[in-house]
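Chapter summary example.
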Amino acid sequence: MSATEQTAAHGTLAARLDTRRWDRVETDLDAHGNALLPALLDHGECEAVAAWYDEDRFRSRVVMARHGFGRGEYQYFRYPLPELLQELRTRLYARLAPLANRWNEAMDVEVAYPARHEQFLQRCRAAGQERPTPLLLRYGAGDYNCLHQDLYGEHVFPLQVAILLSEPGADFDGGEFVLTEQRPRMQSRVDVVPLRKGDAVVFAVRHRPVRGTRGTYRVALRHGVGRVRAGRRLTLGVIFHDAL
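The structure predicted for these 244 residues follows.
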């Protein structure tokens, strides 16, 4: 993180986002399907968001083992979203929509995303996708999240964001964020993304374009969390499309 980014990390969320090297973020997403946003939230914000888990802010709770998703649990927020989460969703979408459109064009996907998140949500609502998808995930010792994709309906924004709210080595051990990528006629590639408390990772939800010798093709991605060996790990997930 540059000196400017370090200074902005202690300012407003808007300032933190405005000072990011978004050209570098796009380069990393194009090359790897994921990109880091270091210190997107400060430690106080992480503690405040983590505390939401025990508050009345959610529309549903999922125990992963009951559905074969892994171990641990998560809760989906209900509308209206907390102010900080709403701002994250709105501002991050605006930064990522141009890249999402470029990716779709490269993959010959005839879907264009509007500049504002509210316009995209109107499209979701028209298709019956009205339930909010941002979520808080909580893992204890022995918990993990199987590889998956967060789709929820016809309309899917191709990027999402996860923010680690706990400190590796202090609050928990293990629990690495993992991405797999399946290219045609090749074995799967695994990418383990190192995160510290307050760091965010932007990553592809389902597909990303990769340029090959015969042109551009789609690569399928899945994400998950490795086994937590000790302690407790909390994560905020920011998904931009809503659910049926």
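To summarize the output: The chain has one domain: 3-238.
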